[in-house]
Design a protein that fits this description.
This protein has 248 residues and is α+β, with helices and mostly antiparallel strands. 25% of the residues lie in helices and 34% in strands. It has a seven-stranded antiparallel β-sheet. The chain has a four-stranded antiparallel β-sheet with strand order 5-12-7-8, with no helix packed on it. The N and C termini lie far apart (132 Å). The N terminus is likely disordered.
């Protein structure tokens, strides 16, 4: 296991495993350097090559990372879309020891064309258990990172590394004004929709409910004296008639 120490924000960062997936050391059919003709936004000059090259496959593929020590770790995966110029052209998942840690990754939809994008996944290993995204599984000393084939093109990865530390220890990409503005606008839209929905519900709820018409009278509470009158008359005629018949 190769260890590399980086300095980040006045802290030492311990990288225990790293690979430039499409670099010069990987020259088989599934390695691509198509992006070397393009400058990659958000990336520092020394990291350009990490995002310009990539590894892909027509099926699910992955890497195994040996980890012998317990602790808190970070998986950092580096991407850039250098071929497709619209979303829904390359979409795939990423699994970590069977746990889906990135769902429906569409790089172009996230950041656009030829722009660096990092997926950062914190996880921990303690007492023989791997904990990631609220899920727990048995850990046998090997971290398996899989890029899962989906319905849209092939899965890929430009570079990845595993470091020991916390989220705040991960080096950040350079700011992207357009991307940050879009994220702010999306947040404002979500907040605006929430406030508008509350106002709408408050305005539509009447303070004093208006009835649709006068109350319907209770039919059982009505006066029944008018119904009894014909019965009394008939009874009054019947009694004398019966008396006369009996005398005959």
């Amino acid at each position: 296991m190769r260890r590399v120490t980086l300095r980040c924000a006045a802290r030492l960062v311990l990288v225990i495993w790293a690979v430039n997936c499409g670099g010069d050391a990987h020259t088989d059919v599934h390695a691509s350097d198509y992006g070397v003709r393009l400058p990659i936004l958000r990336s520092s000059p020394e990291d350009q090559i990490l995002y310009q090259t990539e590894r892909y496959n027509e099926d699910t593929f992955g890497y195994e990372v040996p980890i012998r020590e317990e602790g808190d770790y970070i998986l950092v995966m580096k991407y850039a879309e250098v071929y497709f110029a619209q979303s829904q052209q390359k979409v795939f998942d990423v699994r970590l020891n069977g746990h889906v840690v990135v769902k429906d990754l569409d790089i172009f939809d996230r950041v656009g064309h030829s722009t660096a994008h990092d997926e950062i996944v914190p996880f921990s290993i303690k007492r023989g258990k791997l904990s990631v995204h609220g899920e727990v599984s048995t850990f046998n000393g090997k971290l398996t990172v899989e890029f899962v084939k989906g319905y849209y093109d092939n899965p890929k990865i430009c570079a990845l590394y595993v470091m020991k530390g916390k989220l705040e220890d991960v080096p950040k990409l350079q700011p992207h004004p357009g991307l940050e503005k879009r994220e702010e606008e999306e947040e404002e839209e979500e907040e605006g929709e929430g406030v508008e929905g509350e106002k709408k519900s408050a305005s539509t709820a009447p303070k004093n409910p208006v009835r649709s018409g006068p109350r319907t009278p209770n039919p059982y509470a009505a006066d029944n004296s008018s119904l009894m009158f014909p019965i009394l008359v008939a009874f009054g005629v019947f009694i004398p008639t019966l008396f006369c018949l009996c005398r005959l």
